[in-house]
TrEMBL record:
Lineage: Eukaryota, Fungi, Dikarya, Basidiomycota, Agaricomycotina
Alphabetically ordered keywords of this record: Metal-binding, Nucleus, Zinc, Zinc-finger
HAT C-terminal dimerisation domain residues: 122-191
A Pfam family: Dimer_Tnp_hAT
PANTHER family found in the cross-reference section: ZINC FINGER BED DOMAIN-CONTAINING PROTEIN 39 (PTHR46481:SF10), ZINC FINGER BED DOMAIN-CONTAINING PROTEIN 4 (PTHR46481)
Entry protein name: HAT C-terminal dimerisation domain-containing protein
Length: 231
């Protein structure tokens, strides 16, 4: 944003000055929103390809310390919830809180004495591990699904990484719905309307393919991932 602010003082960009001012104002708006919530910071740290790398480089120490304090505060809350869930006898297993028996002792008991001295040992241990490569782990959510050695952070990742970074997808869906809900289709029932919207989103996002659907109908063993069928 500082580069945009410098352009405002450059006479060469006087013809587009109003546009630059609007852009800077919008950036400041979202910067302020990031200050008002801990979600941005926590989601950043819980990405194993980022952790604190970008935050250390881009954030002032004052804001970094505030973010870390907020993270540890939330970690303490999740740690308490996890400890309660471990003590409760249950005949059912929850995918978010259960740990395979073969890994349970190694994941928690080995660090019990250390946790008594440092309640954030799990967090510090996670930060000490090398960052993963983005090309190998483009989506951090599946990775967290198998990280039983970080049980508290795993619970946090389940909640925080599920939060959409922007509302663009939802807003785009609402915009598309206006095209479906026109005066010529006012007798359409809710079920059909919702089905059409889901189909439209699927084809737009590439999750559905008309060619693939046809092949699936007429070739029983058709495999969407097998490119030989499309030659």
């Amino acid at each position: 944003m500082s580069e945009w602010e410098e352009l405002l003082d450059n006479p060469e960009y006087e013809p587009v000055r109003k546009g630059l001012q609007a852009g800077v104002a919008l950036l400041e708006k979202y910067y302020r929103r990031a200050d008002d919530t801990d979600v941005y910071f926590i989601a950043h740290v819980l990405d194993p390809t980022l952790k604190l790398e970008y935050l250390n480089a881009a954030w002032d120490e004052e804001y970094l310390n505030v973010g870390l304090a907020a993270f540890k505060s939330r970690f303490t809350i999740y740690r308490a919830k996890y400890e309660v869930s471990r003590k409760k006898p249950s005949t059912t297993t929850s995918p978010s809180t259960s740990i395979p028996a073969s890994m349970k002792s190694g994941a928690l008991s080995s660090d019990a004495s250390t946790d008594n001295m440092d309640p954030f040992e799990e967090f510090h241990r996670y930060l000490r591990q090398p960052r993963l490569k983005r090309e190998n782990f483009p989506n951090p959510i599946p990775w967290w699904g198998h990280q039983f050695e970080y049980p508290v952070l795993r619970l946090m990742a389940r909640d925080y990484l599920a939060i959409p970074a922007t509302t663009c997808i939802a807003e785009r869906s609402f915009s598309l719905s206006a095209r479906t809900d026109d005066p010529r289709r006012r007798q359409m029932k809710k079920l059909k309307f919702g089905g059409l919207q889901k189909l439209r989103a699927g084809y737009t996002d590439g999750r559905l393919s008309a060619e693939g659907e046809v092949m699936k109908k007429y070739i029983g063993d058709f495999d969407f991932d097998n490119e030989d069928y499309l030659d």
